[in-house]
Write a structure and sequence with these properties.
The chain is mostly helical. The protein has 6 helices and no strands.
């Protein structure tokens, strides 16, 4: 198997997991006048992203790779920065939007590699993930317009 593709997949996998954890963090800790709407939005996002984690891991295994599966490994591989502060609601939305756009780019980059190697099943999966992050970005971007 192509080690560059496999390495990129592991980065994308760890980044996706980190993104989901951040959305869950914001879901748990959001406060303010828009609490309920943002609480539900963040939950919808992390539910969707976590829902794809197992399929992502299986795609790595199909390529004869091993899936990173520890917080220390994720912290090394992820391109989504941790958020340890409690942000105001709009900062939460803005940060998650920036990360959703980052995730779209990560998926796009790995998609291109998969296509070049003729891994069309994998590239279909990655296209779906890119599209999911585009939808998350749209929802977050639309939420910011109200303020």
């Amino acid at each position: 198997m192509d080690e560059k593709l496999l390495g990129g997949l592991k980065i994308a996998f760890a980044s996706q997991y980190s993104f989901a954890l951040k959305a869950q963090n914001f879901h748990w800790n959001v406060e303010g006048a828009e609490f309920y709407q943002l609480h539900l939005l963040f939950e919808r996002i992390y539910d969707e992203v976590y829902g794809a984690v197992d399929d992502f891991a299986e795609n790595i295994r199909k390529l004869k790779g091993y899936t990173p599966a520890s917080l220390s490994r994720f912290s090394i591989l992820t391109e989504v920065n941790d958020e340890t502060s409690i942000l105001d609601p709009q900062a939460m939305v803005a940060e998650l939007l920036a990360d959703a756009e980052k995730m779209q780019n990560i998926m796009k980059h790995i998609f291109v590699q998969a296509e070049q190697l003729g891994e069309h099943g994998l590239s279909n999966f990655l296209a779906d993930r890119q599209d999911a992050f585009a939808k998350h970005a749209w929802f977050l971007r639309a939420t910011l317009k109200g303020n």
